[in-house]
C-alpha cells in the first residue's frame, strides 16, 4: 500500500471538507444545508481513510494545509454557480486521487485496500459528481438572480 497516496487522498477529502464548510457561510445564495451535509460526509471519508491506515499499521501525519478560498463572488457566473463549480472540481480531484490509490493497491496486489476503496468510496464519489454536475447545469441555465433563489428553495425542499 502506498502511504503517500493514502495521505494525499485523505488530504483531498479534508480540503474538500474545508472548502464546503466555507461555502456554508454564503448568505442564502446557495443552500447551506447541502454544503454542510457534503462537508460532514467528506470529513467522515477522511476519518475512514485515517482509521484504515492506522489499522494497517501505518501512521497518520497531518501536514499544514492552505486555507481554501472563502470568497465566491464572480461577476459573470454569480456566487452560487461559482461555488458549485469549485465543489465539483474538488470532487473530481478527490475521485482521481481515489482511482490512483486503487491503481497502486491493484499493482501491489493489495486486495484489501482495493476492496476498501471500491466498496466505501468510488460509487459514492461518482454519485456526488453526477449530482453536483446536474446542479451546475441547472445553475448555468438559470443564470444569476431570481432563478438562483428558486434553485436554493429546491435544495432546501430536497433536504427536508
From TrEMBL:
Source organism superkingdom: Eukaryota
Enzyme class: oxidoreductase
Molecular function per GO: ferric iron binding; ferroxidase activity
Residues the record lists as binding Fe cation: 42, 45, 91, 125
Claim: rRNA-binding is one of the keywords in the record: no
Tagged with keyword Signal: yes
Gene3D superfamilies for the chain: 1.20.1260.10
InterPro entries: Ferritin (IPR001519), Ferritin-like (IPR012347), Ferritin-like_diiron (IPR009040), Ferritin-like_SF (IPR009078), Ferritin_CS (IPR014034), Ferritin_DPS_dom (IPR008331)
Sequence similarity: Belongs to the ferritin family.
PANTHER family, A to Z: FERRITIN, FERRITIN-3, CHLOROPLASTIC
Biological role stated in the UniProt entry: Stores iron in a soluble, non-toxic, readily available form. Important for iron homeostasis. Iron is taken up in the ferrous form and deposited as ferric hydroxides after oxidation. Stores iron in a soluble, non-toxic, readily available form. Important for iron homeostasis. Has ferroxidase activity. Iron is taken up in the ferrous form and deposited as ferric hydroxides after oxidation.
Name of the protein: Ferritin
